[in-house]
Design goal:
This protein is mostly helical. The protein has a domain at about 20-50. It is about 60% helix and about 0% strand. The chain has helices at about 15-30, 35-50, 60-69. The N and C termini lie far apart (about 75 Å). The model has no long low-confidence stretch (mean pLDDT about 80).
């Protein structure tokens, strides 16, 4: 069993791995494209019926609330 540790060669671009990543991204995009209308519809329904909008106070309200305390 060897205990020798090699020196780092540094970052070297690897075109084969880059090509593999691009191919995988393209395959995923093609596979998920038919599901896009379903995802959009589900997101719209979620926003309309289930998601609660957080109430954001305006600067004007903050000023009046601070002065009343």
């Amino acid at each position: 069993m060897s205990t020798k540790v090699s020196d780092s060669t540094g970052y070297v671009p690897n075109p084969q791995m880059s090509a593999f990543g691009y191919v995988m991204a393209a395959v995923l995009a093609v596979l998920l494209l038919p599901a896009l209308p379903i995802i959009v519809l589900a997101w719209i329904l979620w926003r309309v019926f289930f998601a609660e909008e957080p109430v954001e106070s305006s600067y004007k309200d903050w000023r009046t609330e601070t002065q009343n305390q």
